[in-house]
Design goal:
By secondary structure, the chain is an alpha+beta fold. The protein has two helices and two strands; from the N terminus they run ααββ. The longest helix has 13 residues, at 22-34.
């Protein structure tokens, strides 16, 4: 997926890749923003793209 390549990703792209609704993808991504796994890659008030955040996934 795009995040591996460090490219910003949209909720629409996530919904298509995971086979879930766009609304649910937005909710999941907002939860990941709260946990600092993702951050906004968009400028302005409306967030359309996300990129990896400061926090790293633990293996």
């Amino acid at each position: 997926m795009y995040l591996i390549n460090r490219k910003p990703v949209s909720p629409v792209e996530v919904s298509k890749a995971l086979g879930i609704s766009t609304q649910f993808a937005r909710k999941l991504m907002l939860d990941l923003v709260d946990k600092q796994y993702l951050m906004s890659a968009s400028q302005g008030e409306r967030v359309r793209y996300y990129r990896l955040g400061k926090r790293k996934l633990e293996r």
